Amino acid sequence: MCRVLIILVDHQSAELTARMTENLMRIKGHADLSLIIVRNGSSSGVAGSIHLPFESFANVWIRESAVNRGYFGGVRQGLEWFQETQGDLPPWIIVCNNDIQIEQADFFERLSQLDPNCIGVIAPKIISCLTRLNQNPFMVRRPGRWRIGELRFWLKSYYLAFVHEKMSEWKKTGVRLKQRFLPSTPDRAGPQLATIYAPHGSFLIFSKQFFTRGGFLDDGFFLYHEEIAVAETCRQVGLPIVYYPELCVHHEEHSSTGRRFTRSIYERQRQSFQHLMSKYLADLI
């Protein structure tokens, strides 16, 4: 069984963290896992009154952060602490939300069959518990100027972004109804281990090679658009992102941000988009 480091971020949602921890304990080979729980925006003890069952894990660490560093900010804190105190990274590093459930008993056995030396990031099949749709591949191809122009237009104001959010919800509903009443279609990316541009950010499987070649987690994104930063970093270090539907997880979508599109969410999206354009996609302006 291959060694795996899992870094998950908890923001005032200890019950979800406990549920995911219990879920991991039911998976074959979980004793070989190392687990870091980063508790964003918390300066007190372990996940409040929620019991976290760690007795079957070889290594578990809880890192407290008095401020909310965001998704990649929290993960980066945990990853840097691991490298400073525990030394070398294992072959695979999983970065994920705490609202993920893995139902495949042999998930890590399947992962061990892949070569971490020639892959940057693995994008598994991610089934949304809200829509029942597969969230991967997040993007098959790099966006062009037209797509970037669309994103810039919808983020011009909160009201435009709100309309765009509602349109996206209606589109997902239409796709879900189509899948319910019509025969199923093959996965969007085609064959297994298909190379894609960007993976969905809720569950990312990084290889050690990603970091060995100079890849990093950009904490300039608080919550949104980190998928494209990962994609552009893989392009820079010369490693592919592959979609591998033989690995499958379930995602309780919007459990941390909620389902309401608020002004604060809009501001986070707009700030992340500005950071994305200035640092990664300046050639598309």
Task: Give a written overview of the molecule.
By secondary structure, this protein is α/β, with parallel strands linked by helices. It contains eight helices and nine strands. The chain has a single domain (4-142, 191-255), classed as Spore Coat Polysaccharide Biosynthesis Protein SpsA, Chain A (Alpha-Beta Complex), CATH 3.90.550.10. Helix content is 36%, strand content 19%. Strands 1, 2, 3, 4, 5, 6, 7, 8 and 9 form a nine-stranded mixed β-sheet that branches. Strand 1 (4-10), helix 1 (14-25) and strand 2 (33-39) form a beta-alpha-beta unit. The chain is globular and about 50 Å long.
How would you summarize this macromolecular structure in one to three sentences?
With 285 residues, the protein is an alpha/beta fold. The protein contains 8 helices and 9 strands.
Feature tags:
285 residues; alpha/beta; Spore Coat Polysaccharide Biosynthesis Protein SpsA, Chain A; nine-stranded mixed β-sheet; 36% helix; 19% strand; globular
